[in-house]
């Protein structure tokens, strides 16, 4: 029972850390699963890629920023269960990617799209910023550099 309450609280924390004023459409309800890093050797190999579908390196943006996530070679699936060849997106504000097997933190700089969302509107810090997109499996364990994308943008 204690684990269920803790996981529910973590889910609520992750939802409250989204920097946009509105919840992304289809936001996932708190879910029960392990949020510990996974040994990279125990993770499936990814054969795809992720990309920012509507943003490019060097873009000048104004808040709120609409972000579209793209993926090829993998299927988007909500968090909760590890299924080979599937995962979901995370937006990393100020970071390029996480090492393979590392769990994506749930905080204001690491936004989870565990409901399987493929876009969001976010408010970003002003100035030069790195945006990273990290694809991760059903328990938020990163697929690493191979399933990440990174751009630098200027927010005015």
Overview of the molecule:
With 156 residues, the chain is mainly beta. The chain has a single domain, classed as Immunoglobulin-like. It has 1 helix and 9 strands; from the N terminus they run H-E-E-E-E-E-E-E-E-E. Residues 1-34 have low confidence and may be disordered.
The overall strand count is: 9
- The fourth-level CATH homologous superfamily is Immunoglobulins
What CATH calls the topology is Immunoglobulin-like
Largest sheet: 6 strands, mixed
In short:
The chain has 156 residues and is mostly beta strands.
Which keywords apply here?
single chain, 156 residues, mainly beta, Immunoglobulin-like, 6-stranded mixed beta sheet, 3-stranded antiparallel beta sheet, 1 helix, 9 strands, disordered N terminus
What's the topology here?
Elements: H1 2-16, E1 49-52, E2 60-61, E3 65-72, E4 75-76, E5 86-93, E6 110-112, E7 119-122, E8 127-136, E9 148-155
Parallel strand pairs: 2-9, 4-5
Antiparallel strand pairs: 1-3, 3-7, 5-6, 5-8, 8-9
């Amino acid at each position: 029972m204690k684990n269920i309450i803790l996981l529910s609280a973590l889910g609520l924390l992750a939802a409250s850390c989204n920097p946009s004023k509105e919840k992304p459409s289809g936001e996932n309800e708190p879910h029960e699963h392990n949020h510990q890093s996974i040994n990279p050797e125990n993770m499936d190999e990814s054969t795809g890629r992720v990309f920012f579908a509507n943003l490019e390196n060097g873009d000048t943006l104004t808040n709120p920023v609409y972000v579209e996530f793209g993926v090829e070679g993998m299927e988007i699936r909500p968090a909760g269960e590890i299924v080979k060849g599937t995962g979901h997106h995370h937006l990393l504000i100020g970071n390029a990617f996480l090492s393979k097997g590392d769990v994506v933190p749930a905080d204001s700089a690491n936004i989870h799209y565990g409901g399987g969302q493929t876009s969001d509107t976010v408010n970003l810090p002003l100035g030069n910023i790195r945006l990273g997109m990290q694809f991760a499996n059903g328990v938020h364990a990163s697929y690493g550099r191979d399933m990440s994308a990174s751009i630098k943008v200027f927010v005015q």
